[in-house]
Write a structure and sequence with these properties.
- With about 325 residues, the protein is α/β, with parallel strands linked by helices.
- It folds into two domains: about 170 residues, DHBP synthase, CATH 3.90.870.10; about 100 residues, Threonylcarbamoyl-AMP synthase, C-terminal domain (Rossmann fold), CATH 3.40.50.
- About 35% of the residues lie in helices and about 20% in strands.
- Strands 1, 2, 3, 4, 5, 6, 7, 8, 9, 10, 11 and 12 form a twelve-stranded mixed beta sheet that branches. A four-stranded parallel beta sheet has the order 13-16-14-15, with helices on both faces.
- Strand 10 and strand 11 form a beta hairpin.
- Helix 1 packs across helix 4 and helix 9 runs parallel beside helix 10.
- The chain starts with a strand and ends with a helix.
- About 50% of the residues are buried.
Length: about 325
């Protein structure tokens, strides 16, 4: 199979619509990461997502819709606070988990009675979703457990020859996956941290919990159960307080002939004289925007990435730390 990379224009979107309606897969941009989309009503198409990615069968998918789509076609029992959150944060990097009507394929939610609904704000995503006018089930457009893609070239590196079309909408601005929020209870509960923070949600909904998984419990969101976001090279993770030890490890590994680098915030790079460094930025938004791109750069150029966790902990950094810990094995 030839994999084409095309900008989202009338011609490529018409081709994307034909592929989706025919049960195929299309990779498309969002403001967070690139998604690998299939018609959520088509069970065989949804199953092919798992096959192409090598994704575990008990890891649910998120359904993406355009901002004009009537979500009551696919979900029910929408609490008032969920409507307020959708009005505030959608389109945007927030996925709201609601009770399913059972109209989309049960493979999407791995047999659960809920599905996650996302309305991406990226112009290319909106054009694609309006063109197909279907709920699109989509995880990140990469091989399972690898670093999530934030450019069309990242998608191509993982899925060339496996899918027919990648819609190239440029580099994703957000950089980490959406916040996933369970809205089936009395108060919203974060299942996966992201760019929409607990504080932002509580300000609108009045309160917000954070889910703590129990042994043997089925997960309601992707990114909760398995190793994710991992580069194809060795990694180490040090806390911010251990940053001097991280630099010592970098020196020791480099002296032993290992092609190593330090991945850290800008202030740490300024504090220590390190030749090989991947800079993540100065705040949570910059960390989120740069993390996956730098992990991909690191695996291309080095044998070992030595990561230093950020000094900041709250807000967006909660999502960054979730991804960094899963990626680098802290």
């Amino acid at each position: 199979m030839d994999t084409k990379i095309l900008k989202p224009d009338d011609e490529s979107l018409a081709e994307a619509k034909r592929i989706i309606e025919g049960g195929g897969l299309v990779a498309f941009p969002t403001e967070t990461v690139y998604g690998l989309g299939a018609n959520a009503f088509n069970e065989d198409a949804v199953k092919s997502i798992y096959l192409v990615k090598g994704r575990p069968q008990d890891n649910p998918l998120i359904v993406h819709v355009h901002k004009g789509y009537d979500i009551t076609r696919i979900v029910c029992d929408i609490p008032d606070y969920a409507l307020k959150l959708a009005e505030k944060f959608q389109p945007g990097p927030l996925t709201i988990v609601l009770k399913s009507k059972g109209t989309v394929s049960p493979v999407v939610s791995c047999g659960l009675d809920t599905i996650g609904i996302r309305v991406p704000s990226h112009e290319g995503a909106q054009r694609f979703l309006k063109a197909v006018d279907l709920p699109i089930a989509a995880p990140s457009a990469n091989v399972s457990k690898h670093v999530s893609p934030v450019t069309a070239q990242h998608v191509y590196a993982d899925l060339n020859g496996k899918i027919p079309l990648i819609l190239d909408g440029g580099k994703c601005s957000g950089g980490i996956e959406s916040t996933v929020l369970d809205c089936t209870g009395e108060i919203p509960c974060i299942l996966r941290s992201g760019l929409i923070t607990r504080e932002m949600i509580a300000e609108v909904a009045g309160d917000c919990g954070v889910f703590v998984p129990k042994a043997g419990e089925k997960v309601r969101s992707p990114g909760m159960k398995y190793k994710h976001y991992s580069p194809n090279c060795r990694t180490m993770l040090f806390t911010y307080e251990e940053r001097a030890k991280a630099v010592e490890e970098y020196i020791a590994q480099s002296s032993a002939g290992v092609k190593a680098c330090l991945m850290c915030e800008n202030s740490v790079a300024k504090e220590f004289d390190v030749k090989d460094v991947l800079l993540l930025g100065e705040n949570g938004e910059q960390f989120a925007a740069n993390l996956y791109d730098k992990l991909r750069e690191g695996e291309r150029c080095y044998e070992l990435i030595i990561a230093v966790a950020p000094n900041e902990r709250g807000g967006v950094m909660a999502g960054v730390m979730n991804r960094l810990t899963k990626a680098c094995g802290g």
